[in-house]
């Protein structure tokens, strides 16, 4: 009896009888940014590396300026400049890299990946993040486009409306700055958060989760943030636990929406922790959204949650429905799915 033949047949038998895992690899991301999903899917199938897949997917959106706003030439700040935020979070190693308020460098998700891979830091910001990027070989260039300059001029001509100021004079609801703080006794704390400035026509973030076929999970984000932000503003997207979070022992979650409000509640971290306590993704995402709704009933945003079985879902607020793009072994093709809010 040839024991080699018996052994090989045994291995073959095991392989044929094991169920094919239909749920992984998996790529899922915010909004109907399907070309980004497609790019990440191609990468995960060819190179089996989820960080590479996230970089490829988010880079695609940065190049396409998804929704006119991810990447360069979108969301000009009060000075007319576009600045970028991004995060890459590896759930296998619990290592991360992020950049906030990156100026004059287009490839923000790749810069975040360089922070992860070539430093022991987690987050670099502003001009000095640019210096780091240039040192790593990235090109420094103007991120404005004719469109972003035009958008900024129109905002200026419209008395700088909307803007993100409060408790300052002149009245920010009717005039441009420069502003000065009003006196302590005139501050009306009830007036503080009036209307959401984010809505279905002003959302700017690709947030993506990838699980590879080794069951490793990673998450990433890339955005140019909020239109007409005060220069120096950094949103939720590069903040771990806010814009994205991943942990191989549980799953991952990502967020999009009004980052100034959302980052106060760390919704991605909360969704992952709820899954750790045994919740399915749908309920975990809903709990994270509800936590914010309790204090900001009108806030605009959404959370996607995925567990290590590859089960996924989302929850949202402030819009009718939230679309997301997903592909796995079972679906084979990128599909846009939706949850109602
Ligand atoms: C930010 N969360 O900078 C981003 C923007 C966004 O839908 O996702 N809008 O606040």
Kindly describe this structure.
This protein is α+β, with helices and mostly antiparallel strands. The chain has helices spanning 3-17, 34-47, 50-64, 108-118, 126-135, 146-157, 259-262, 267-276, 281-293, and strands spanning 26-30, 84-90, 95-102, 123-125, 168-169, 180-181, 205-211, 217-223, 244-247, 251-257, 301-307, 312-317, 321-328, 335-340. The strands form three sheets. Strands 4-3-2-8-7-1-13-14 form an eight-stranded mixed sheet. Helix 2 runs antiparallel to helix 3 (50-64) and helix 3 (50-64) packs antiparallel against helix 4 (108-118). The longest helix has 15 residues, at 3-17. 49% of the residues are buried. The structure holds N-hydroxy-L-asparagine. N-hydroxy-L-asparagine (SD4) binds at residues 198, 203-205, 223, 225-226, 235-237, 256-259. Substrate binds at residues 233-236, 256-259. Residues 1-22 form the signal peptide. Cleaves the GlcNAc-Asn bond which joins oligosaccharides to the peptide of asparagine-linked glycoproteins.
Task: Compose a concise summary of this entry.
By secondary structure, this protein is an alpha+beta fold. Helices cover 30% and strands 23% of the residues. The strands form 3 sheets. An 8-stranded mixed β-sheet has the order 4-3-2-8-7-1-13-14. A 4-stranded antiparallel β-sheet has the order 9-10-11-12, covered by helices on one side. Strands 5-6 form a two-stranded antiparallel sheet.
